[in-house]
Amino acid sequence: MKPWERYRAIKAAREKGDEATFMEHWEALRQDEVGRADATLGNVLLLEAVRLAKTWKDFAPETPRKIIFLLESLRNDFQLIPAECNWYALAMRTALRVQDNYPQFLDFADWWGLEHLKEEDFTGFQTQDGRTLIPLAERIYQAVGDAILDLDPFEPERAEAFLVKLQAVSKDHPEYTWLDYVESRLLLRLGYPEDAMDIVRRFLLKKPREYWAWTTLAQAAEQAGQPDIAIACLANAITMQRKEELLVKVRENLGRLWLDAGEAAAGRAEIDASHRTRMRTWGKTTPSLQALMESEAYLNAPNTGDNRYRYRSLSLKARLFSVQGLPEAWGIVVAVIKQEKGTKVILATEREVTQIYSAGMATRPLEVGDMVKLYLDPNIMKAVLLEPGEPEQLPDFVREERGRIQPNPKGFGFIGDLFIPPFMIEEIAAEINKVMRVRAAWNYNRKRDAWQWQVLRVELDK
Predict the structure, then answer these.
(1) pTM of the predicted protein model
(2) Which of 30, 268, 318, 341 is the most exposed place for a label (fewest CB within 10 A)?
């Protein structure tokens, strides 16, 4: 049977769902020198292979083996011309289905060629059920980066070469958030912890609740000689993850760092917590954890540690470290709104500009009248962290006045031209004749439909 006749037999078998006949003719073509050299034939065989693979269920145990067989056959047995193959991307999409079970995935990716990504591969698209799929390019670069990181032994030259390509794609597509995480891990593995810290902090601007990103930042900080920051980041990671089985390595590393820092009781508490979870979940420990439990520092530590009360302050330290170097601005809290889905704070941030943020973004609970430092994402100039504090000089949308209140019989009062509403007068009635300090913000008055000075806080001048 000639090569193209076998192709037609393969296509017919696939359309009928006759897998055995499909594989029989496929095997015959693998032995046909004329068919193997025909690139046009190779291109259409790729389409038949991925169409057949699409009928196999992901959860079926034999699916990865069958898909890998077809992909490896395409790579090793046939010629293809990517520029002439409109469905070339389907081969990579199929490979991504089985990448975790595909030992030759990196070799396949090298053969497929990242340079063959097309313009449409860099944009996501919506499925018929309304889901937005991640762009193929982002998925490929993430998968290849993960595979390089998993190499044993690690190949620095291969990682360096891929890193250059990854950084170029990230620069052109800053919306590919997950590539920042891959880049940070590659930089860390290559021995560039300071650069890794910069990139993982950029990732955390968009994904601040990803606990494992904080563990990467901790690892980079430790390698950069900042164990105190590493401890803070690991403690912050613990506050973000409730499943103890996912925290066993986090607690082990935190315990090790605390032992090294001379805080033996704190270190032992974390190591014991990791050990209890491992024994309860898997019934065994690990060599690294066992070594810590046999160390002199651990054995001499009092079994009295309880670190839960420390996590909040350490978490704050980690969060503040993560925003170092970001643009800063000042705002003032003009309202705190409690809702079922969480508390919101309204900040005046410029004259005639207010912004609404989640109260959870603040390093401590906020009250009306608090001045707040905003750490801004430079890409969108929106705050990623709110830190209460006092600026050296008040911005032009905030005023402070000192003096005695001039009360009015109707219950309100004034200090200078600043109107103080009755409820505030009632709160300070016992000290109404003393010198007061008022703080006001240039804020929008809905009743009057106008911007004006609004007193936010009245307190005794000390």
Answers:
(1) 0.84
(2) 341
